[in-house]
Design a protein that fits this description.
Layout (H helix, E strand, L loop, with lengths): L9 E8 L4 E6 L2 H9 L5 H5 L2 E10 L2 H12 L3 H10 L8
Antiparallel strand pairs: 1-2, 1-3
């Protein structure tokens, strides 16, 4: 989907937690969602594993498409997740 402009995209994103764990989720507003995670009001997982930074994101045309990718990624091993992060690195991420 690189280069496509989507009017109301949904994003699959990965963020790094303080303990090195990678969290995968979906949102239609990355900055707002990260702020929610960082404030302790996001997912239960990120309340227990403090998020440090956004690593990567990928836009999708629909929530359904983003959810399918999120589920697929969550079932993958860490090595596959790291490859995905490399391919979809978020601006400002230095991993």
């Amino acid at each position: 989907m690189t280069g496509l402009i989507l009017s109301n995209p949904w994003f699959v994103y990965m963020l790094e937690c303080a303990n090195g764990v990678i969290y995968t989720g979906i949102t239609n507003n990355i900055p707002k969602r990260f702020a929610k995670h960082a404030s302790g009001k996001g997912a239960m997982f990120t309340r227990l594993n403090c998020p440090v930074r956004m690593l990567a994101s990928q836009p999708f045309a629909t929530r359904s498409e983003a959810t399918k990718m999120e589920i697929w990624l969550k079932r993958r091993r860490r090595a596959v997740k790291l490859e995905w992060i490399t391919a979809h690195r978020h601006a400002g991420a230095d991993t």
